[in-house]
Amino acid sequence: MYHHPIKVFTAAPCCTSSTVAVDTIMLGIGISPFAVSVVLVAATLLWLLRRYLAGGCCYSKARLDGKTVLITGGNTGIGKETARDLARRGIMMCPEWQTEDGFEMQFGVNHLGHFLLTDLLLDLIKSSTPARIINVSSLAHAYAKMNWDDIQMRKGYNKRDAYGQSKLANVLFTRELSRRLRKIVSGVTVNAVHPGVVATELSRHVMKPGSLASRLISLIRYTPLVWVFKNPVQGAQTTIHCAVTPELLNTSGLYFSDCAPKEPSQHALDDDAARRLWDMSVEMVGLI
């Protein structure tokens, strides 16, 4: 009678001696082949998920010789990668905070600052046609609405609502600016983009401030997700696509995600809201 301390089962039509040896070794050291299979399947699914979330890629080889490109937030993250690609600030969910001018920080930095900068450069842009303006918004705009009665959120601050409102403002501003440009000049386009969920320093305020315990909880909550986020190079692709793709020369007033036009939220399609935001912004930054 033979004694068989280890049994190896396989669903394969044939089994080589090397396969048996590997399975035997894994069982001998306490590792189940089934467990290994589960890990491999899980790793494959995570890889596929990351590939899916990476989104579209800009394949245009268009040259920018003789062109001038102005990028805000070009020192790190998506802005840096956009600048790097075209050459070869943004704030997110921060605690209640005001700019030096007294504006709610996210609305002030993410919308009003860009609104004013665009206005100050507009005459130069109009004299430099063809020209393209790209506003970096976010999918977060789809879960937000404009708090017209308390745009600065002085009555009750919620960092996620404030961020979403600022990103919705980006899309509304894009829509209204496009409408106005069509009436006065040809050859200047403006579009908004969602770069994707990107692992950059922009999300530094998502972590809960305070005790060490709260920081650890936030770290545990968010860190496992970072692996499936886009990296800054991938996050820059839609911006680059809108900036250089020849076929988009006359495309304006749209919202892009993964290098393709996408339908924004219903709130973002409200022309009355876009005009109201424009008038409010003009007054807030002192252009009247």
From TrEMBL:
What residue ranges are annotated as transmembrane? 31-49
InterPro entries reported for this sequence:
NAD(P)-bd_dom_sf, SDR_fam
**GO molecular-function term, one example from the UniProt record:** oxidoreductase activity
- Give the Gene3D superfamilies listed for this entry: NAD(P)-binding Rossmann-like Domain
Which keywords annotate this record? Membrane, Oxidoreductase, Transmembrane, Transmembrane helix
Query: Which Pfam families does UniProt cross-reference here?
Result: adh_short (PF00106)
Stated name of the protein: Retinol dehydrogenase 13
